[in-house]
Amino acid sequence: MTKLSAVILTKNVENLIADCIDSLSFCDEVIIIDDGSTDRTADIAKLLGASVYQFTGEKFSDKRNYALRKVKSKWVVYIEADEKVSSELKNSILQAVNQERNPISAYRIRRQNFYLGDYVWPQIELLERLFKKANLEAWYGDVHETAKVTGSISELEGLLFHYTHRDLTSMVNKTIQWSQIEANLRFQARHPKMSWWRFYRVMFTGFYDSYVKQKGYKVGTSGLIESIYQGFSMFITYARLWEMQKGK
């Protein structure tokens, strides 16, 4: 059995996938779970030596669980197509997977976000991404999926670089895709009927969380644009929910 596999979920990311796979050159295998890309994503991944599997569906947890069944290694790290592993994080991952009788079942990774080009977002996220395959039971959730792990969890040194919201076009496309899923989840959960004042509340919450709580104000103009956009994204989600509640 090999030691380390990397899993990447993809859909139409031909401009990102090469850099992502290059940053994973230290892995024994790279597994691509592609959701029906119509660009050159799958072809590029194959040229770079990755194993590509097609799996279409809305639930990200289903895609991650499908990938887990394809993993042949003792350890698995989940990476997104718009992320890259830093040198320090690479060393930390290798140290963890090469450690004999490592008692840790999973590791959290610190993710640094970059918005609208190369603007560094102040808040650092902490995400569970590296797992012993035997201790990763399953993933749960439609969009914001969560891993169920047996055993202890620790934290790695080094950063995972996340180049999200690279431009306004990609931001809008992402909102169109995700808002439908998010709205449907709220509709299925019987969310209270949408009224005019709820729109103001959710839009303000989105802006406040991004600009104040996450300290987006420290990033200047790009921080303001991103935070206003978060309010807009919340509006689209709840406007879709309003449509569903109206039977449209």
Describe this structure in words.
With 248 residues, this protein is of the alpha/beta class. The chain folds into two domains: 4-163, Spore Coat Polysaccharide Biosynthesis Protein SpsA, Chain A (Alpha-Beta Complex); 168-245, no CATH class. It has seven helices and ten strands. It has helices at 17-22, 41-47, 60-70, 87-97, 168-188, 196-213, 221-245, and strands spanning 4-10, 29-34, 51-54, 75-80, 83-85, 104-115, 119-132, 136-140, 146-149, 152-163. An eight-stranded mixed sheet has the order 3-2-1-4-7-6-10-5, with helices on both faces. The chain has a two-stranded antiparallel ribbon with strand order 8-9. It is globular and about 60 Å long.
Secondary-structure arrangement, i.e. CATH architecture of the largest domain: Alpha-Beta Complex
Approximately what portion of the residues adopt beta-strand conformation? Answer: 25-35%
User: Which regions contain 5 or more consecutive residues with pLDDT less than 50?
Assistant: none
Structural class designation: alpha/beta
What is the rounded Rg?
A: 19 Å
**H and E order:** EHEHEHEEHEEEEEHHH
Instruction: Give the CATH class of the largest domain.
Output: Alpha Beta
What's the overall geometry?
globular
> How many helix segments?
7
Distance between the termini: 52 Å
Mean pLDDT: 93
